Amino acid sequence: MRIFIIAGEVSGDVLGARIMQEMQDAEFIGIGGENMIAAGLKSLFPISDLSVMGIIEVLANAKTLTRRIRQTSEAIIKSKPDIVLTIDAPSFAKSVIKQVRKSLEGQRLIKNGLRFHHVVAPQVWAWRSGRAKEYAAIFDKLYAFFDFEVPYFTKYGLDTVAVGHPIADGLIGKYKNKNLTEEDKEKIITLVPGSRMSEVKRLMPLFHDVVNQLVANGYRNYKFIIPTVETTEKYVKSCIKGWQVKPETVASSQRYEVYSKTYIAIVASGTVSAELAMLHIPTIVVYKMNPVTLWIGHMLIKIKWVSLVNILLNRCVYHEYLGGAATAENVLNEVQQLTIPSVRNKMIEELKHADKLWYRKDGAPAKLIAESLRKELKIK
Under 8 Å CB-to-CB from 63, ≥6 apart: which residues? Predict the structure, then answer.
C-alpha cells in the first residue's frame, strides 16, 4: 500500500513518524521533518517552507507556498497513492487536494479509489464554523482529537473519528512532573519561543527581557533552558550569544525530559501548552503577532482563551499574555505568583482535572489512525 503523507510542522511530524512506525509494510511518500525522515521518509522539501502562521506572514511567503502547493499536487498525481494523509497544516493541505481534485489525472485517480484523510479537526467551535462543511467537501475522512468535535463534521456527512490527543501518547508515567517545591536546590525555568520562525523572532526579544528581569529580581539561582526545533535552532543560538545570562539550549527530542524537571515554563501559545498541561507543569502563555493579525483574530474568534487546557476546562488555568500584554513585567509578576506554594499547587490540581480529556482507553492516536487506514484499504 502506498500512502502520500504530509506534515507541515513539528507536532505533525512527530505523529506522522509514529503512524509510519505502525505501518512498516506500507510505502510512504511525501513531506515531513526530522522524525518522519528518521522513520524512512524522503521529504520532497523541508517542512520549514510550510511553517508559516499569520495573515501577513502567509502573504509574505505566498510565492514559496504557491510553488510548494503545485509541486506537491504534481507529486501526488505522479506517485498514484492509495491514500493521501495530511496532518494539520490545513491551508496547505486543502490547497493541494483542491488542485488534485481539479486535474484530469487526479479525477482518474479518485475514480480508481484514491481517498483523502486528514488529521486534526479545525476548531470550528471557536471560529469560522463554516469550515466543517468545507472539510466535508474536500476530505473523505477526518481524525479529530476529542469526542465533542465529531458531531460538528458528521452532520455534513464527513466520516469523523475521535482518536485522542497524540501528544498524550507516552507522556504520562515516563515524564511525570515531579511537582518541584520551593526548597528544591535547582529550579529550571523553561522558555519555549515556538516552532515557527515568525513567532520565534517576535518572542526572543521578550524572553531576553524576561530573563534579565528575573535575574534582577532575585532569580539568579534559576537555570534557564530553551528547547529548540530544527527549523529555528540556529536563529535561537545566534540570539542568546549576546545575552548576559545565557540559557542552555537542548534539542527538541529532549524537551520532555526538560519539561519533567521544569519548575515554571514560559511558552508561546500552541501545542507546547498542551504538552505541559498533560505533565502538570505550572506555565505562563505568551504570544506576539502582527497587529493586523491580532486585530482580525479578536474580531473572528469566539472563545476567551487560546490555551487548549483553558478552552477544554472553560476556565483560566494558564494565564495568557497576548499582544501588548506580553511584557516582561507581566511575566515577572506571574512567576512571582507561581513561586507561592498555594498558588502553584492550585494550578497543578486544576491540570490534573484535565487528564481524562487527553486520553482514550482504546489505544494511542497513531495506532488508531493506522488501523483505520488498513481498514480503508481492506488490508488485514
Answer: none
Describe the crossing of helices 62-79 and 104-111 by its angle, rounded to 10 degrees: 50
Q: Where does the chain show beta strands of DSSP type E?
A: 2-7, 27-31, 83-87, 115-119, 141-144, 159-162, 187-192, 222-228, 248-251, 262-268, 283-287, 319-322
Is residue 265 within 8 A of residue 283, CB to CB? The reply is yes
Q: What are phi and psi for residue 318, nearest 5 degrees?
A: -90, 120
Full 3-state SS string of 86-127: EECCHHHHHHHHHHHHHCHHHHHHHHCCCEEEEECCCCCCCC
Q: Which three cell numbers stand for residue 275?
A: 504538552
pLDDT in tens, 92-138: 999 999 999 999 999 999 999 999 999 999 988 777 889 999 999 99
* Distance of alpha carbon 309 from the chain centroid: 14
| Cα–Cα dist 283/266, whole Å | 6
